[in-house]
From TrEMBL, chains A, B:
<dbReference type="InterPro" id="IPR033469">
    <property type="entry name" value="CYTH-like_dom_sf"/>
</dbReference>
<feature type="region of interest" description="Disordered">
    <location>
        <begin position="121"/>
        <end position="156"/>
    </location>
</feature>
<feature type="compositionally biased region" description="Polar residues">
    <location>
        <begin position="144"/>
        <end position="156"/>
    </location>
</feature>
<dbReference type="Pfam" id="PF01928">
    <property type="entry name" value="CYTH"/>
</dbReference>
<dbReference type="InterPro" id="IPR023577">
    <property type="entry name" value="CYTH_domain"/>
</dbReference>
<dbReference type="InterPro" id="IPR012042">
    <property type="entry name" value="NeuTTM/CthTTM-like"/>
</dbReference>
<feature type="domain" description="CYTH">
    <location>
        <begin position="2"/>
        <end position="156"/>
    </location>
</feature>
<protein>
    <submittedName>
        <fullName>CYTH domain-containing protein</fullName>
    </submittedName>
</protein>
Length: 156, 156
């Protein structure tokens, strides 16, 4: 089964900004927030869209299936079918290796929340977190985007 | 928004068998059974697969988005991610018009249930049901496949 492996950290300082190479605006919603079978609709920069199915997390890995779909379908699903509220965030890609490092800056109901993530090969040793990374929240399900949709950061 | 329009009937006699042109074995499961945002994985004859999202029904129509996915992905989602039990049925296609007529013969936990469906153009007059069709159950949500998964026919 295809698997996504990542670790997730709070952000302790803004020093990550010096490492940014590019960013994308993500608008996403959920058709299921059941942690055994998450179904996410994601629109990237208003022009590319994906439907993603995620199974339950075991440690830092979870099954993941992702399909590109027409952006206009995603807009309609986000506007009419997905649970409220939607998740909106800017994703910054960093010049850092090993692994693929990003920082998500949330807006809307999750305004004020920043999360760093590193995706890496399943079975590999997790990359050492940078100095600006804070608490490791990989196994804290409150920080999954599906949970943030149900219980937004600003309501904590 | 793409829309599916259909009416659904119980089956009052087996006379539909004379109209069968072909059949397919369907194995399907649900990632969401929320009637506002159903997410279905369907495997057809163990070789073709679809991921389908359906919005809330209004009368005989509902929004529907459907994407073909690799059969091996569907097998893994059915085996590991979908809610239990799965729905298994044989779908018989009929030589009858107007509309596209099918009869589903359920097995497993829904053994004993037969449902006839006709899909037709949105806004058109529903085709006249044949003599072998029984009660119109279009607006009885117990007969949606997502409900039959949660509350199978044999448990009624």
């Amino acid at each position: 089964m295809p698997v996504e492996t990542e670790r997730k950290y709070l952000v302790a300082s803004m020093d990550w900004r010096a490492e940014v190479t590019r960013s994308s605006r993500l608008r996403q919603g959920y058709l299921s927030t059941d942690l055994d079978r998450i179904v996410r609709v994601r629109l990237v920069d208003d022009e590319t869209a994906f439907l993603t199915i995620k199974g339950r997390r075991r440690g830092d890995s979870r099954p993941e299936f992702e399909y590109q779909i027409p952006a206009e379908d995603a807009v309609q699903m986000l506007d009419h079918l997905c649970q409220r509220p939607l998740i909106e965030k800017e994703r910054y890609f960093l010049d850092r290796s090993p692994g693929v490092w990003t920082v998500d800056v949330f807006s809307g109901d999750n305004d004020g929340l920043l999360l760093a993530e590193v995706e890496f090969d399943t079975g590999a040793t997790p990359p050492t977190p940078p100095g600006w990374a804070g608490t490791d929240v990989t196994e804290d399900d409150r920080y999954t985007n599906s949970s943030l949709q149900e219980s937004p950061f600003r309501s904590w």
